[in-house]
């Protein structure tokens, strides 16, 4: 086991091409998926968090329910959508990195929307009156929320990224785990373990652990840099 850890470190230090190809693909796919999810969640969260209307409770319940949807189910749905007989089959995105991105976006969007809505609701309940925005239009409310909560929104984005990069089931179904094409960190670990290549699996696992630590550290630093009491002074 100790030897396997040593070999894993050697692979990382040596800059193994296959290993770094997987790392870079995982980073750009998950970063873009999380970014798109946040881009959709922030305006929707402003609507759900600052306005009262009929059906809002039901919408929030559905969003919360979709947070628990299994990754393999999302993968199956995206597979059917992108297959030759699917609605988007002509785009030929199945078994590409873009298919993984789409699956990750769908998977993390409910999480992003639920977290953003909860944070916006709390902020609006406490600080909305300070901005005298009762009856303000959507653009004004959106701008005010972003000004009030840049730190919390960044923390939510980091959480969403962490969820995206740790996903495995959907990535295998729609990506196929193809070397130098669709292999990402989680699917690479699964493959290397199945093949008995513990050093390679540990190398990928170390990268995931470092990323998890970095995401949590960044979230804590943002929370310290923009504490809740600063909102009172805005």
Walkthrough of the structure:
With 234 residues, the protein is an all-alpha fold. The protein has eleven helices and no strands. α2 (17-50) crosses α6 (138-148). The model has no long low-confidence stretch (mean pLDDT 88).
Question: What's the SSE blueprint?
Answer:
Layout: H1 2-14, H2 17-50, H3 56-66, H4 71-82, H5 97-127, H6 138-148, H7 150-165, H8 169-175, H9 185-194, H10 198-225, H11 228-233
Helix pairs in contact: 1-10, 2-5, 2-6, 2-7, 3-5, 4-5, 4-8, 5-7, 5-8, 7-10, 9-10
Relevant terms:
234 residues; mainly alpha; 76% helix
* Number of beta-strand segments: 0
CATH topology: MetI-like fold
Distance between the termini: 54 Å
Assembly status: single chain
CATH superfamily, please? MetI-like
Total domains? 1
What's the architecture, going by CATH?
Answer: Orthogonal Bundle
What is the N-to-C order of secondary-structure elements (H for helix, E for strand)? HHHHHHHHHHH
Summarize the structure.
76% of the residues lie in helices and 0% in strands. By secondary structure, it is mostly helical. The chain has a single domain, classed as Orthogonal Bundle (MetI-like fold), CATH 1.10.3720.10.
